[in-house]
Structure formats: C-alpha cells, structure tokens
Amino acid sequence: MEKKKSNHQWYSIQTYGNERTVRLAILNMIEEMGLQDRITDVIVPTEDVIEVKDGKKKITERSLYSGYVFARIDLNTEIQHLIQTVPKVSGFIGEANAPTPLSEHDINVILDRVSNRAAPKPKVFFAIFFSFLKFKLSFQLECKRYQPELLCQKLKR
Questions:
Q1: How does residue 118 score in pLDDT terms, banded at 50, 70 and 90?
Q2: In a designed cystine with 64, which of 44, 45, 58, 132 is the match (CB 3.0 to 4.6 A)?
Q3: 85 plus 46 within the same structural domain
Q4: For the ranges 27-41, 77-91, 128-142, which has the lowest average pLDDT?
Q5: Rounded to an integer, what distance in angstroms lies between the CA atom of residue 42 and that of residue 137?
Q6: Which carries the bigger pLDDT value, residue 117 or residue 65?
Q7: Residue 19 scores a pLDDT above 50
Q8: How many domains does the chain have?
Q9: What is the 3-state secondary structure (H, E, C) of the chain?
C-alpha cells in the first residue's frame, strides 16, 4: 500500500464572532463529515490575563489573535467552501479565492506562544485614566466657581 503525500498547511481563518465558538463548530464539522485526515489541527491561541473585579482577582483567557482561528488543512475547494459556510467565519486570509498558507516562521511563532504560555498578565483598564480626567474636570469647574484667579492659574501650570 502506497502512502499519500501530506499537503497539510496552516491557514488563518478570519472570524467575526467568538473564536472559540468557531473552533468548536469546525471541530464538530470535522467529526460529522469524517474529515480528520483533511483537517488535523484547529487552534485559538490564548493567554491568561488577571482581571480585578469588585476587589477580587480572577484569571481569564484572552485570545492572542482576536478574530482569527488557525487550522492545519489539506486544502481543496470543497474544504474551503465547507469552512466558509461555518457560522461567524468571514473567510480565509489570502488573495481573492486563493487562501494563503502561513509561513513556517509565522506558524512556529504562534505555536511557540501556545506551548510556552507566559505567566498571567494584568488586564489594563482605562477606567483609572477616565476617573482621573473626571476628577480633573470637576476640580477645574470648582476652581472657576470659587476662586477663578488663584486656583485656575495653578492648575494650568
């Protein structure tokens, strides 16, 4: 028996919804249609992020490449159309109707980030900045109301 040559390459699939939902839909399609030999891997690279809500720390997962799912596919027109009919899939990254496979370097960088997850990072909120601006604005209004000459001149410096 002759072994077939594998033409599997990594492709980037653009989504407009939750990447994890798209990944699960593709995995379900693979299972239902018996495409395990054509689509071997489907990943959504994530990182751990520390969120602080109501004074409590919580570690959550955030997508590294928001709006993208990566899949290792032996691509043909039929498989391309099947994936593009999955809900919340915009299409493959590439020119017109010709999906462009990811370079070895690019996919190695992505897979390295997946396998060597860094320690959780704090999620940056802009609420602190906006709170400061709100405070500064209310302070400026109070300056103008009570002692416009003295306080507002100091504030402008």
A1: confident
A2: 45
A3: yes
A4: 128-142
A5: 49
A6: 65
A7: yes
A8: 2
A9: CCCCCCCCEEEEEEECCCHHHHHHHHHHHHHHHCCCCCEEEEECCEEEEEEEECCEEEEEEEECCCCEEEEEECCCHHHHHHHHCCCCEEEECEECCEECCCCHHHHHHHHHHHHCCCCCEECCCCHHHHHHHHHHHHHHHHHHHHCHHHHHHHHHC
- How far CA 97 is from CA of 17, 54, 81, 138, in Å, comes to 22, 48, 10, 55
User: For residue 2, is it within any domain?
Assistant: no
Please provide the average confidence, as pLDDT, over all residues in the chain: 80
Structure tokens at 91: 């299409």
Could you identify the residue written with the tokens 């396998």? 115
59 and 91 together in one domain: yes
**4 lies in a domain?**
no
Place of tokens 């390295």: 112
Q: Do 109 and 82 share a domain, yes or no? A: yes
Q: What is the mean pLDDT of residues 7-28?
A: 94
